C-alpha cells in the first residue's frame, strides 16, 4: 500500500477508498491513523487525523485502540501547537458527512479572524496550497511529528 492510501474496509466510504483526504496532502502514518494537511489552509495548520480502518464511532474501537488513537491525536495536536504557537487547538470529531472516524485539528492563532467561532461558521475563501508551499508545509509537519512523542 502506498503512502497516503488506506485499506478498503467499507467500499462505500471515501476515506476507505482513499479518495479523501487527498493523497498528495499525506503527512505521516502514526500506526492506527494517518495524518493529512487539510485542503483549506485559511486556518494555517488545519490537519486531519484519519483512522486507518473503518469505524464510525469511538465505541466501535477496542479500548486499546481508543487509547492509541487519542495518543496519536494528542501527538499531532502538540506538534501543531508548537509549530504554529497556537493559543488553542480545536478538536473536531463529527462524522455527519463522513461516518469514518477522523479528527480535524485546527490551530487557533493570535491573529485568528474569529476566535470565538467554530471554523465551519467563519465565511472565507479557501486557501489551497499547491506545489512548493504545500510540500514545505507537509515536510515541516512531518519532521516535527518525528520529534514529538
From TrEMBL:
Gene3D superfamilies per the UniProt record, alphabetical: HIT-like
HIT domain: residues covered: 11-115
GO biological process: nucleotide metabolic process
PROSITE patterns: HIT_2 (PS51084)
UniProt cross-references to InterPro entries, sorted A to Z: Histidine_triad_HIT, HIT-like, HIT-like_sf
Molecular function (Gene Ontology), one example: catalytic activity
Placement of sequence motif Histidine triad motif: 100-104
Record-given protein name: HIT domain-containing protein
Amino acid at each position: 500500500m502506498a503512502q497516503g492510501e488506506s485499506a478498503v474496509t467499507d467500499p462505500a466510504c471515501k476515506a476507505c477508498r482513499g479518495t479523501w483526504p487527498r493523497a498528495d496532502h499525506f503527512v505521516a502514518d502514526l500506526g492506527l491513523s494517518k495524518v493529512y494537511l487539510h485542503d483549506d489552509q485559511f486556518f494555517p495548520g488545519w490537519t486531519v487525523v484519519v483512522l486507518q480502518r473503518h469505524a464510525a464511532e469511538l465505541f466501535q474501537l477496542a479500548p486499546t485502540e481508543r487509547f492509541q488513537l487519542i495518543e496519536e491525536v494528542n501527538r499531532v495536536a502538540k506538534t501543531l501547537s508548537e509549530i504554529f504557537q497556537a493559543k488553542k487547538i480545536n478538536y473536531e470529531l463529527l462524522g455527519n458527512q463522513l461516518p469514518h472516524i477522523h479528527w480535524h485539528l485546527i490551530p487557533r492563532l493570535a491573529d485568528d479572524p474569529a476566535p470565538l467561532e467554530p471554523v465551519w461558521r467563519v465565511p472565507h475563501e479557501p486557501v489551497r496550497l499547491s506545489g512548493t508551499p504545500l510540500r514545505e508545509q507537509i515536510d515541516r509537519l512531518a519532521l516535527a511529528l518525528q520529534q514529538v512523542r
